[in-house]
Each structure stands twice: as C-alpha cells, then as structure tokens.
Design brief:
3-stranded antiparallel beta sheet; globular; about 260 residues; 7-stranded parallel beta sheet; alpha/beta; Rossmann fold; 6 helices
Length: about 260
Amino acid sequence: MDILVCVKRVPTVGGKILLTEDGQQVDTRMSGFTISPHEECAVEEAVQLTERLGGSVSVLTLGTEIAIEQLRDALALGAGRAVLLDTGGSRPPGPPRETDGQEWGPIATASAIAAEVREHGYDLVLFGNEASDTGDYQVGIRVAHELGWPVATGIKDISVADGRLVARREYRGVAEAYTLPLPAVVTVKEGINLPRYPSLPGRLRAKRTQIERVPVTWQAEGLRKEQLRVPESVKHQAEILGSVPDLVRVLDELGVL
C-alpha cells in the first residue's frame, strides 16, 4: 500500500493562549510546536499497515519551510518520504516565517493536497480527525470530495484486505463499521493505537532524508477572518485563612454552620 498521512504544524497545547495585537493570529512567539495527537496516531496507523501489508508511508504538510521540523518528527516515527507543500513563495532574507501572509482556509488547503494526491497516486490518505489548533473537521472530507473518493471519519480501527478497507468507530454508544473500496480517505481519532517513541536510528534517518518541496499558490476561497477571540476563562480566587475565627466566618458564609 502507498499511504499518505497529512499533518499540520500546531502550537503545543498547555499554555495560556495569547493573540497578536491585531487579533488575527495566535501569538506563538513563546510556544513550542508539534502535530496533534490524532495525527500522531494516523502516522502510527500507516506505519503499522505497511508493516503488515507492505508498501510505503509518505507524510505531507502545507506551510512554510519552518514546518519541515514536524515532517522530520513524522519521519522519525517510521514514515519514509516527506512532502512540503511550500506556501513560502519568494522568501525575504532572514529566518523562516510561520506564515506566508495568506490565510489558508480548508478549501484552499484541500485543493492543494488533492493536487498532490492526483500527481503521485496513493491507495489511502489518512488525516487526524480534526486540527488541534482550529478544531477544523473539514479538510479530509473536502479532499475526498474533490478526488471523488469514499471517506470515513472519526475512525478508531482500520483493517485492509482484498482491495477494500473496513473502518470502525463508535458513535453514541453504537459500534459502526464501513467498508470502503480503495483508494479512500480516512480521518482517525486519538486512541486508534499507541504511537511509538522515535528511536535514535529513526531520528538519524529522518535528519538525513531529503524533503520534497512542491510550491503551491494561494487561492481565494470566499472565506474571510474577522477576528480571533479567546473565550473568557473562569476565574478562581483563594483566601488564606489565618485563624479559627476566619475559618468560622467563611463556613458561616457558605451556610455550613
């Protein structure tokens, strides 16, 4: 099987989310970067499938040169080929930038990925179920629609035999199974497997692997971002009680006494 796994460079989850002054981007100056847990599982699932059935695993991301870091992380997990859909265009002098100044929405992103799939010809394309930064569930489905391929989403188990794929998931307590002819698109959820840790030989091989670069041009898609907003978080306040009377007062205010 020739499998493509699509990943996305996203800020590491855990810290406080800050926005840039214009409210158009997440301020990532103090953030680390990774791929989402769903996508880590997608890479692992692709590697396991090819270990059982033979074939190759490619990883792809859309972004600027700085996203090569995430491609090498996926190569260290067992992928053998990496493709950067390079949005950077003609780069000004200086270090790599996070963005090229254009807003790549789900329509433009899916179009660029579908063009690469047509060019190479894959048996299976895997996505994480959604991006961990935007919560966007659209790209995998849009790629399948553009290619005219069958698609299954939210999948927690995959098996392949006789040119067909069986994708299983649980929805509202009911087990569901879908049989899809190949080629197909599948989005997987965290928990479908336990991703392996990259080995030292894997990291060294990833460092040596040549990254294929495919220039892509942004296309207007009719979507426009107005402004990002960070939801108000629930604020908690603690009061230090220094004496028994203070404790009695607080318990009385809470209606315990």
